[in-house]
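P.,

For your records, the input lines for the assembly:
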Amino acid sequence: MPELPEVETIRRSLERRVLLRTIQRVDVRETRFRVPIDAPGLARKLLRRRITAAARRSKYLLLHLDDEQVMVVHLGMSGSLVLSPESAPLPRHAHVVLRLDGGEELRFIDPRRFGMLFVVPDRDALSRDPRLVAIGPEPLSADFDLAYLRRRACRVRKPVKNFLLDSTVVAGIGNIYACESLFAAGIHPRTPAGRLSGERLRRLHGAVLTVLRGALRSRGTTLQDYRDSDGRPGANQRRLRVYGREGEPCLACRHPVRRVVQAGRSTFYCPRCQQ
DNA sequence: ATATTCCCCTGGAAGC
DNA sequence: TGCTTCCAGGGGAATA
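Structure tokens returned:
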């Protein structure tokens, strides 16, 4: 479900409400994730800790604790992290529940269990963690500049759509924003990345920034179940130009939007606007 | 190196 | 109504 704009929106909503609060109880109700959760270990690490910062790297949420530990949460396809009064009924698939002081619970809800939740001892361990170490620059940081993109695209033969989805190239771009960025740049998703002209790479770079910033302003895309930690949906679905619009007229030229499959994922594009 | 394909899961929508 | 099939925002591994 969540790509960079959604995870960043969740981070911001958490930052407003969980900082400096203490974890009073750890309830692991389901341990069977792709990487199983060690329930006693998790409780031992988190109990009585205060949350001191809410950060993000790529699609990973990083909740820093008062003893240098960092709780890492990845929401996979269907995950959410919701803050609710403990009196509110527990929804299905609330697999980890952290009771905070003040009578609220931080609930990790993930029907498909593709997500991850684990704790690392400190920032150093975080920066060396194999899951994070190979991730490319944040697209909205100065590290993701045109020179970098040119260098990475050079001689790459894979389709530019797959290139954008490669987390070692750039962090946080998933299927929706890859499709939308290519439409905004007017680039065909099957174009080999290394064959894009300097001008087209410049347009792609600008399109990625514009699309992600717009999605952040709209607080993310809610297709079905995405919510921030206050339970609010995003509004960016109204701004999607091609994603999910197979067969519907292109908003620029009326030609039907096409869907193809690349690396097992749907790609939506306008065959007329994206050559 | 790179490109598919499959897999991990559940649930909703669409088709019959 | 009920059954089956397909599809889904991620990511990693296995396979050609």
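Two observations worth noting. The CA atoms of residues 76 and 115 of chain A lie 4 Å apart. Chain A has a mean pLDDT of 96.

Regards
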